[in-house]
Amino acid sequence: MNIQTYPIGEMQSNCYLLEKDGKALLIDPGDTADFLLEKIQTMRLELVGIVATHGHFDHIMAVGEIQLSCPTLPLHIHEKDIFLLKRVIETARHFLKYDPVVIPIGLTTKIKSGKLVIQNFQLSVIETPGHTPGSCCLYFENEKVLFSGDTLFKSGIGRYDFSYSDKEKLEKSLEKLLKLPEETIVYPGHGEETSIRDEKNIIQMFFS
Questions:
Q1: C-alpha closest to that of 49 among 79, 78, 19, 88
Q2: What confidence tens digit (pLDDT) does each residue in 164-173 have?
Q3: CATH number of the domain where residue 122 is located
């Protein structure tokens, strides 16, 4: 499986384009749908899925526009973050300080803890609430790769100061991640990649 990382939008959120056997899976397409669709077309891939680690605008704002080109593709997202989809424009306006053009998201499919198969992509959904109620991490066991959204970063953890965030739940979520193999590569929602091994001390320090 090949992984392309694109920091996009004013928030520089990481969108991940996964490629395997001519198929493409997008994780957290937060902005610039045209750019992402052009990359997929240039690489001659078939887009088979879109997954969000959580519902914040900078991770899902391009979904509606992508669905205009791929109307049968749902957004896979945890049901507890559906409420954030309805706040996209309001939240984006608050953080970006202008009114963005946002195409409403069409089809959605609710994900939960356990195995998720999207054609030839096989992964495990790990529910990691705290940053948002429906935050999830996406774990590819065979590749030892984790897409952590805004739960875990290189030398940092997700914010828990939103009205719907929960520090105690975030701590328990991070404890789940510590149980993964140390060599697991972590691809976060912002910033550079890291590993479970490198973040063990950071996680323990934040909650000591």
A1: 19
A2: 999 999 999 9
A3: 3.60.15.10
